[in-house]
Model the fold of this input.
Amino acid sequence: MDINYNTDVIVVGAGPCGISTAIEIAQAGKKVVLLDRAKYIGSKNMYGGAIYKTALKEIFQDDFNTLPYERIINSHSWAFLNNTGSVCITYQDDENKEAYAVKRSSLEKWMIDIAKKRGVYFAPNTLVKNLIQQNGYVVGVETELEKYYAPIVILADGVNSLLAKELNLREKYEPKDVILSVKETIKLDKKTIEERFNLKDDLTNGVVKMLLGNPEGVKNIFMMGFLYTFKDTIMLGVGANLADLVKNKININDLLEYLKQHNDIQPLIKDGQSLEYSAHLIPETGYNKMPKLTGNGVIIAGDAAGFVNSIHFEGTNYALISGKLAGKTAVNALNNNNYSQGYLSLYKKELDKSFILKDLYTYRNILNRLYDRRGSLMNYYPKKMKEFFDIITSANCKSKSVQFKNYFLSFLKDRNINELIKDGYMAFRCVLDIFFGR
Ligand SMILES: Cc1cc2nc3c(=O)[nH]c(=O)nc-3n(C[C@H](O)[C@H](O)[C@H](O)COP(=O)(O)OP(=O)(O)OC[C@H]3O[C@@H](n4cnc5c(N)ncnc54)[C@H](O)[C@@H]3O)c2cc1C
Done:
């Protein structure tokens, strides 16, 4: 059958990736339809809180100046939690203006308004149920109400991407391939947040705290918590590998409760009103389990392709730029009237040249290395850091020399030497991975 195409490209999913894809295509003068299942744009999406300037400026150019941010995040802390307190490293610089705290619903609304102005046709409340295929090519999508046809379909439908699975472009995800994350939005008035976090009152500074270190008795997980300051809310959340949670029978909500009660966090959120609670998955498939990124008439981008660097809390920038590259490839394919997998694989070449596959390649084994030593990193060393600072800060009338000697000998006493060697080797291999990365 001859197909009557409704449009040049269909993009499924209006997160950062799908919107950026659609903008790239519309700006090249092609027709693009962007579909999202959510009735209210952004309502199905969730993140910690930071979106990054460089990627945003590349897509939105001067419109970046209207970004509805609530604070510029220029204080970054890594807190290694122990039972009673933490050892915290903070980097703060008012000149550092790369990360912006933007609420997800405001972010997507802002992006979609710009996309529409640039010629994107957006259809919310439209769930794509299936892909339509003909002669081995994807030629459209079937929604609950109708069928749309286009020579290229771009899948930007997020971590679960049932559509990529339908095409067998990606393997089934196992629990070990994803982080389960929960987040609570806590309301406090603006002034209280500024007092508690020592912020100026003009929204030009904000805080992100990474919270690392398992609660006592919780072993064999790699808990990563986060706290972001917004204008009059705090986002507090935590994530851990799903397989570890299941295996150790740990409820992720209990980890969030632990953070809320922790001596370091409790005073910061005290008297706050809980506004919202949400949960989401983060892909951790990385370079080693990357899907086939293209098929005949189809391209995958963003979270759907597993483009996240969870160690650095980066995902939106990967989504925006992979979307742009997917859009660019689609435009070239339209200009050359070639929608074959072979032609569309130019997308992979573009990704190879970008920071996306360079970084995913560099980090391809680092996460596993850290996971393998998660007991050390999340239980043992936070405890040893506390002991070290106990000595440094205690004016307890005891010999410092004796205390330090005992401290260093304690590594040999309470830790099998093999474990220490494994930890050191892990750190060495991570450094090598970065040094010999792309
Ligand atoms: C807890 C948490 C904290 C994070 N923190 C950060 C952070 O601080 N900074 C950062 O950069 N990244 C962060 N990330 C990662 C970031 O949120 C994602 O990488 C990014 O949102 C991916 O964008 P995307 O457009 O690929 O997918 P998504 O944002 O997931 O968008 C997918 C869209 O597809 C739609 N969709 C899905 N299926 C269908 C269908 N069948 N039909 C129609 N529509 C469909 C959905 O409704 C959704 O709108 C975090 C993630 C989590 C879970």
About this structure: The chain has three domains: 9-67+102-171+288-362, 176-283, 367-435. The pocket of flavin-adenine dinucleotide is lined by residues 12-18, 35-38, 44-51, 127-128, 156-158, 181, 183, 237, 239, 280, 282, 302-304, 308, 313-317, 319 (CB under 6 Å). The domain at 176-283 is CATH 3.30.9.90 (D-Amino Acid Oxidase; Chain A, domain 2).
